[in-house]
Every structure is written in structure tokens, then in C-alpha cells.
Write a structure and sequence with these properties.
With about 150 residues, the protein is mainly α. The protein is built from 6 helices and 2 strands. The N and C termini lie far apart (about 35 Å).
Length: about 150
């Protein structure tokens, strides 16, 4: 559990300090949506028995809470920063983040922090991350239309 807290929560939020200094609105607008999306999808996947996260906690929600509020949320913050503030090509930003997060899951699978059940695989994981980033992009576009950014 300590490994997940440090690698999945503390370190990602330390990197988010860079984004906060340059575009603090991202933290206050995108991060809550991203945390909610991550929390819902992770809990849904666990509850319908698509995957299991192996930690020392007996409380199911604690198994993913630090990841949902940490690395998944911060990934969406960085995604928004590159897409909107750095104005990088969206195809490359999508690929970089969806493949990067899928790579993180491959590492978690290889060190046995995560187990996929027979109904789930790494391709579905990639599609789920891609879908999550699409939802974040739609939120960003709406916030832009509402003149929240920059």
C-alpha cells in the first residue's frame, strides 16, 4: 500500500506543481472531473469482477483511492496542459497518454499489483484510457466555450 501511495499519489502530485504554476485553472477544473471518472471506472471494474488490485487493505475503495486521486487525475491534468496550453497535436497527445497509462498498467500487471480476469485484457484497458481522455477533452472544450480558459 505504501508503494501505491508514494508512486501513485505523492509523486504524481509533485509533478502537478509545475502545471499549477503555469495554468492553475486546470487543477481546479479538470482534476475533479478526472478523479470522479477514475473513481467510477475503477470501482465499476472491480465490482463487476474485471480486475483485482492487490493491496493490504480490506476496504475495496481504498485499493484504488490513491491511484484514482493521484496518477489518474494528474495524467488528465497533464493531458489538458499539453492539449490546450501547449497546443500540441491532439492525435499525438492522445496516443502518448493512452499508451503511457496502458504502459503503467502493464508494469502493475508484471509486478502482480493488478490481475485481469478472463473478461478483460490490455487492449480493453487502452480503449478505456482512450475513452477517459476523450471525455476529458470534451470537458475541456466545454470549459473553453464557457471562457474558463485561459
Amino acid at each position: 500500500m505504501l508503494l501505491m501511495i508514494v508512486l501513485g499519489f505523492i509523486i504524481p502530485w509533485l509533478t502537478a506543481g509545475y502545471v499549477y504554476k503555469r495554468a492553475p485553472k486546470i487543477i481546479f477544473t479538470v482534476a475533479p472531473f478526472a478523479a470522479l471518472i477514475a473513481l467510477i471506472l475503477n470501482q465499476l471494474g472491480i465490482q463487476i469482477d474485471l480486475w483485482t488490485i492487490h493491496t493490504s487493505s480490506n476496504m475495496v475503495i481504498l485499493n484504488t483511492l490513491f491511484l484514482d486521486l493521484g496518477i489518474f487525475t494528474v495524467a488528465a491534468v497533464w493531458f489538458t496542459y499539453f492539449l490546450y496550453y501547449k497546443e500540441k497535436q491532439s492525435v499525438w497527445v492522445y496516443l502518448m497518454f493512452a499508451l503511457g497509462m496502458t504502459g503503467v498498467e502493464i508494469i502493475a500487471l508484471s509486478i502482480h499489483l493488478l490481475t485481469y480476469h478472463e473478461k478483460w485484457n490490455i487492449f480493453y484497458t487502452f480503449l478505456m484510457y482512450l475513452g477517459g481522455f476523450i471525455i476529458i477533452h470534451l470537458i475541456i472544450r466545454k470549459l473553453d466555450k464557457l471562457e474558463v480558459y485561459p
